[in-house]
Design a protein that fits this description.
single chain; mainly alpha; 0% strand; 27 helices
Length: 651
């Protein structure tokens, strides 16, 4: 690091010193790799590095030329404030500084690339950029950081960087640097590395890649909502009690699905970043762990649904007719939980490695099978008996079996990249299991607590009468319909940012995250419009009591602003934060805002104050508004931006 500033700058003077500086850089590069590579060459390599460092440090290679030690000034600040090694701080900030100033004299940087890195590109600008990238690549080959996010201090918020810029320039009263004199503002711009001006991002390519993920994922969410909507609409034609029974019985599966989502989301924290590193074997090990855990959980939920469906239904309602219908539904649909376990884990991990179209096909076929079987068995078409809610359960079971069959065929015959290895389901890697517990278990607990919170909301509403339950069932379907694109954005964010962080492109990850948040906000507003449009349509189509129709308009109004806040929060918590391994924050956030605020106030209003249904509903749906300022503050801190992968030798 002492050779580079003396080598690449002010090359028009002292030819002999230039040759010394070039040889110094060459020896450092070769000796660095020897030091890391072969044990018997340690002594020679270390002596070479010490000799080169001594020549550079005592000023011999820089005689007769001004020197620019701006990076060193910042390095000393970082070392003092965060206890980082001086060499690490220098390699971390050098690339940012070089990109900030190289355009002032491209010929000098180009000369550095040609002489030290043997580049033959004639264009000075291209050579300068390539030389900077090559230098950073060399640093990374020595396991040295190339940005603040690579160090244990992590990416720091603007306030901390501004404080350091102020100290370096004595409160903006002096200029620092030799190649370019910098005041506090310009110093701040180069160290913060949070602007996208120097990243040369092709935003058209970015949006093409992102929408290639978002559109299939949104279609998958839409199809999943369609499966639920088919049940709601068909059973809604049968009667209010049947619809309520199906909706409340579905809460058991909803909780299980959230646990599966937690398992897979936690796994994708790791798999997306390992995909960025192209470490396929580790991804297969994580897939095996996920399948083992999900199947074990599915067995537990299936056993409960088949053996004690009545007590489970009483958690959500006290209406005996609704309970009776729910019991019929659970005793059939509970068998499908085993098939859901395999499908959910496999398809979600395929998403994390950018294999998204298979899930779209699987869920589309599931929708077709479910709709056909529901129509035949609920209403008794084609000579079959009219089974009502039991027909809906059989249709769901057939759809889930179809999903699993397609997944197994695809995994065995078509997917040549990531395979299901039965041995990885049995032989669990201890190092990966530890990482999984660290990053995945908070997600599992987060999804469980969030799912239980949603179920608690449903339980509170369930005790307000069947009219409120039926209206809420429709409102939740409308919310899911309005959020299909948002959840696609959140999932795409986790995949895209996770891969980018796995490639250790932290600056790009920050720039991409900002764009994802904008997309989520736009789609949230669009979702609110969809909900408001759907309200009169739903009231016209469904067979509901006058009281239920009145509640429906109110609930759709609440959902219209709820989905905007949820769009931003979901993209941040599920997408941005989890992509960098920041999984604990979501757990703390949901537990505090749901259980400590909205559910608590809603339950008190319903059971102790005996408030009206609109008041209770508004309180129960207030958690997303409370979360919003907290998630935005966490995002701006950049504590979520971390590489959580390991080297192959560690696994």
């Amino acid at each position: 690091m002492y050779s580079i500033p003396q080598r690449k700058l002010y090359l028009e003077k002292t030819r002999k010193k230039k040759r010394y500086s070039k040889r110094n850089c060459d020896r450092c590069c070769k000796s660095g790799h020897r030091y890391l590579g072969v044990l018997e060459e340690y002594y020679d390599a270390m002596s070479e590095i010490m000799w080169c460092g001594s020549i550079s440090h005592n000023g011999i290679t820089g005689l007769g030329r001004p020197k620019d030690f701006l990076c060193h000034k910042l390095g000393h600040q970082l070392g003092a404030k965060f206890d980082e090694a001086h060499g690490a701080t220098l390699s971390a900030v050098w690339g940012s500084w070089a990109r900030y100033v190289y355009h002032l004299d491209e010929a000098r940087f180009a000369n550095y690339g040609r002489k030290v890195w043997n580049m033959d590109e004639e264009n000075d600008e291209k050579t300068s950029v390539a030389a900077i990238e090559k230098t950073e690549e060399f640093f990374r080959s020595l396991h040295m950081p190339t940005c603040l996010g690579d160090m244990k201090m992590g990416v720091q918020p603007d306030e901390v960087l501004k404080e350091m810029a102020g100290k370096a320039t004595a409160g903006d009263t002096m200029k620092v640097g030799a190649f370019q004199k910098m005041g506090e503002k310009s110093y701040m711009r180069f160290i913060k590395r949070q602007t996208t001006d120097n990243l040369n991002i092709d935003w058209h390519a970015f949006y093409r890649n992102v929408f290639a993920l978002i559109i299939p994922m949104a279609l998958q969410n839409l199809i999943n909502v369609g499966v639920t909507a088919v049940d709601v609409m068909m059973l809604g034609r049968v009667g209010e009690k049947v619809l309520s029974g199906s909706s409340l019985a579905g809460q058991i599966q909803f909780i299980m699905m959230l646990i599966f989502f937690g398992i897979t989301s936690g796994a994708t924290v790791l798999t997306a970043q390992y995909w960025g590193k192209k470490d396929i074997r580790t991804i297969e090990k994580i897939l095996g762990m996920g399948l083992t855990i999900s199947l074990a959980i599915a067995v537990i939920f299936m056993t409960l649904a088949l053996t004690i469906p009545g007590p489970l239904m009483r958690i959500f309602t006290s209406d005996p007719e609704v309970i009776a219908e729910g019991v019929k539904y659970l005793r059939i649909v509970g068998i499908s939980y085993l098939f859901i376990a395999v499908t959910q884990v496999y398809l979600n991990i395929m998403r994390s490695i950018e294999r998204v179209m298979i899930a779209t096909f699987v869920y589309f076929m599931s929708l077709v099978v479910n709709a056909i079987m529901n129509a035949i068995l609920i209403f008794g078409l084609l000579g079959f008996p009219a089974l009502g809610i039991q027909g809906a359960a059989i249709g769901t079971l057939c759809a889930r079996m179809t999903e699993t069959l397609i997944v197994l065929i695809y995994a065995h015959f078509m997917n040549q990249d990531v395979k299901i290895r039965p041995r990885f389901m049995i032989q669990i890697d201890r190092v990966l299991a530890k990482d999984y517990l660290i990053y995945a278990m908070p997600v599992v607990l987060n999804e469980m607590m969030w799912g239980l919170g949603v179920s608690a909301n449903t339980a509170v509403i369930g005790h307000l009468g069947s009219a409120a339950v039926a209206s809420n069932s429709v409102a939740q379907v409308a919310r899911q319909l309005a959020q299909v694109v948002v959840f696609g954005i959140a999932n795409a964010t986790a995949v895209y940012l996770g891969k980018t962080i796995g490639e250790r492109k932290f600056d790009y990850a920050k720039a991409y995250a900002k764009r994802f948040i904008r997309l989520a906000l736009i789609m949230g507003c669009c979702g609110a419009c969809v909900i408001l449009i759907c309200a009169p349509i739903a009231n016209t189509f469904l067979v509901l009591s006058p009281e239920a129709k009145e509640y429906l308009y109110m609930m759709f109004g609440v959902m219209s602003y709820f989905v905007i806040a949820q769009a931003v929060n979901t993209t941040l918590v599920v997408g941005v934060f989890r992509s960098g391994g920041d999984t604990r924050f979501g757990l703390i956030l949901d537990v505090s805002t749901m259980w400590g605020f909205s559910i608590l106030l809603g339950a008190v209003a319903a059971f102790f104050l005996h408030a009206s249904v609109p008041v209770v509903y508004i309180l129960l749906m207030s958690d997303e508004l409370v979360k919003l300022p907290l998630t935005l503050k966490r995002y701006r801190s950049y504590k979520w931006l971390k590489d959580v992968t390991r080297n192959n030798l560690e696994i």
